[in-house]
Amino acid sequence: MTNPSDLGTLLASLREQRNFSCRALAQRARVSPTTIGNWESGASVPRLPELLQVLEALEASAAAQQQAIQLLQRPRALVHLRRNFREAPTNTFAPLPLCQGDLLRALRARRGWTLEQLAVQLGVATRTVSRWERGEVQTSIAQRHAFCQALAASSDEITLLTLGCFAESTERPLNLGELDALFETLWRPQHTPYKAALMELGYLSVAVRLQSSGADTGTHKKLLLQTYAALADRYYVMHQYDRAAAFAGQAIRLLSTFEKLPGFGVVALVRFAETSHHHALSSQLLAQWLPRVHEPAWQAWLLSQMAAVMAIRRRPVEADALSLKSLELVKDADRGEQEGRRLDRAELLRKLNQPEKSQEFLPTLNPEVLAMPHLTLPWAKNQLALGQFPQAANLVERTQRSLDVMENDWAHMTPLIRRPTEALSRTISATMRG
Fold first, then answer.
1. pLDDT tens for each residue of 24-47
2. Is the predicted pLDDT of residue 82 greater than 50, yes or no?
3. For site-directed labelling of 95, which of 19, 184, 201, 212 has its Cα 20 to 30 A away?
4. Mean pLDDT across the stretch 312-329?
5. Nearest Cα to 223, choosing from 233, 234, 211?
6. Range with the lowest mean pLDDT among 24-33, 181-190, 276-285, 336-345?
7. What does each C-alpha distance from 278 to 193, 300, 317 come to in angstroms?
8. Tens digit of each residue's pLDDT (9 = 90 or more) over 182-202
């Protein structure tokens, strides 16, 4: 076999040696034929777990596997990955100023392991792990992969950390201004899957640096509040509710230092109410902090969440009144705020066994709405509540198709919608079979 200069040529050569069509290889590797074709043409680059999957399906030799992994590191592949990782479609987002060591440290912090525990797991000296995290020593691909595997990194995190698409080590702690800038970069909408995959580790990196700084200024507390609230929000989207409640609780403990409740304080309170099992406490906290919220849009969100908690506590009259008050506050707000609170009211009425009324607050099913997964999912839920099973099944199918088409643009929100969509699909199928 010749020595291919790019990964696509190598994969095509290995496939042809095995006499596989793109479709046959796709079936064996559990990916789509289009994906295989895009890799071979160089239109896209596989993630490391996907590449290993295909190499296994091809029964590639150890030498061929190593060659493929090395080609994945070549400049052409890295340029493509960095473009997806760092650039939104509008080209307005700056690169994340994260070092590889920051993210390795964040992985360890997420698991709650000490340097010593991880060193024992990896069979290396504690000092070696410490130097990796500080960026003093660059790890090999195998070392990074072992590090990620030991700390249960996701497949996207493994790929990104293995490819090393990050800034060089700063060799010094970032100051509060730089951490604030990093936080703002992370908080912007994450359009690509690569940026979305790093949101959690990015926020954890900021939190670790803030916790170890020893500072106790108002700016420090504000940034720490924002970071804890952002982590609570991210874990909520990922359906990791225990972690969401824990970080929301940490954010709420900082609120006593603020006279006026900032927006991130509202995020923390709402996520705590949505993920905590302490409904009476949630209700008390939401009511306690409502007078300190001065922006109508934030007030409306808080009132809407208070309504949801009251519904859980089986106090429908109070829930209905709070929900209506929430809608009143956003009557002059922008379309997005109005839509969000109307969707909240629709969900509340459905949970109060009033699906006919709920439908009045859902957007009209026009072609634009039918292409938006966050709008078709509530419609599907309502149709199921009304016993309209074929219509519900059709809307679930549309939601799933929209998620597949829009996954890159919705990378930061896809998990929030996809999981309940799949659960609803199973419920509808079971109901229709029964």
1. 998 888 888 888 888 888 777 777
2. no
3. 212
4. 96
5. 211
6. 181-190
7. 34, 22, 21
8. 788 778 765 566 667 778 888
Cβ density class 213-237: b for 16+ within 10 Å, e for less: beeeeeebbbbbbbbbbbbbbbbbb
**Total residues belonging to the chain:** 434
Of the two residues 1 and 403, the one the predictor is more confident about is: 403
